[in-house]
């Protein structure tokens, strides 16, 4: 895969986990606050739509929404 495809895969993975749990970006902001991470809805929207966020942000989001296992295969 090229870089754009990796970016789309990463972005899609996080969006899919949010959708599975019916979590909006606004709710994600609150859940992140619960684990001590300060973000705004606008920042989250920009990061996720760009798809070029750090692995730390991905793990923070997945932890905040309660993801215990992640399948990265298509």
Word description of this protein:
This protein is an all-alpha fold and 74 residues long. It has one domain. Helices cover 65% and strands 0% of the residues.
Protein traits:
74 residues, globular
Silhouette = globular
Structural class: mainly alpha
Total number of helices: 4
As a percent range, the share of helical residues equals: 55-70%
Q: What is the terminal-to-terminal distance?
A: 13 Å
Tell me the count of domains.
1
Short description:
65% of the residues lie in helices and 0% in strands. The chain contains 4 helices and no strands.
Itemize the secondary structure elements and their pairings:
Layout: H1 3-20, H2 25-34, H3 41-50, H4 55-64
């Amino acid at each position: 895969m090229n870089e754009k495809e990796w970016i789309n895969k990463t972005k899609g993975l996080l969006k899919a986990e949010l959708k599975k749990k019916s979590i909006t970006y606004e709710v994600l902001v609150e859940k992140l606050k619960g684990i001590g991470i300060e973000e705004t809805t606008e920042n989250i929207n920009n990061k996720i739509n760009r798809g070029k966020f750090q692995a730390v942000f991905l793990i923070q989001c997945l932890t905040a929404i309660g993801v215990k296992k992640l399948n990265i295969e298509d």
